[in-house]
Design goal:
Blueprint (H helix, E strand, L loop, with lengths): L3 E4 L10 E6 L5 H24 L5 H21 L4 E7 L2 E8 L2 E8 L4 E7 L2 E8 L2 E5 L5 H16 L6 E2 L1
Parallel strand pairs: 6-9
Antiparallel strand pairs: 1-2, 2-3, 3-4, 4-5, 6-7, 7-8
Helix pairs in contact: 1-2
């Protein structure tokens, strides 16, 4: 799993915090497609060279290779901009979750919101919960960063660590 990072500092008052959590992508989707085109040109060039010398069966295998590579690049490219934005404003906690091409916005009442830690298959998991609604946050962060996120959000929400853990 690739590491992720948080843009924005834990600064300011609880009511003006904005935090962007996203994947640590070293290449943009457009850059990824440029790399794919370069790989495709090299692969097809080598295949064409072998075909000129009579080894034409290399071209179908090169085509299959490029199809599989295109599928992998498509999956990576679709999720390169996944992120979570957490904002505190006007007595509400607003969480915008972007996953592939979908964007969902969740709002929680600041006075009733709480941060809950739990253990899952990937280690520590963090939920933001208010009444009957709950949302997992920090899914792009490593375990240590999730714990830090939970601590800071709890401090911002209630000014204390309430120690509640979800099982």
């Amino acid at each position: 799993m690739e590491a992720a990072h948080a843009e924005g500092a834990f600064t300011g008052q609880a009511h003006d915090l904005s935090l962007l959590l996203k994947r640590n992508c070293s290449i943009s989707p457009s850059g990824l497609w440029r790399v794919f085109v370069l790989i495709a040109l090299v692969t097809l060039g080598i295949g064409a060279g072998f075909a000129c010398f009579g080894a034409w069966l290399i071209l179908p295998f090169a085509g299959v290779e490029l199809l599989v590579l295109a599928a992998a690049f498509l999956v990576v490219g679709r999720h390169a901009t996944d992120c979570e934005r957490i904002e505190f404003a006007a007595g509400r906690v607003r969480v915008e979750v972007r996953d592939s091409e979908r964007t969902a916005v969740h709002e929680f009442d600041l006075s009733r919101a709480q941060v809950v830690l739990g253990e899952g298959g990937g280690g520590i998991r963090v939920w933001l919960r208010a009444r009957d609604a709950q949302l997992e946050i920090g899914r792009h962060l490593d375990e240590q960063s999730r714990a830090g996120l939970a601590t800071e959000l709890r401090r911002r929400l209630h000014g204390k660590w309430d120690g509640e853990r979800k099982t």
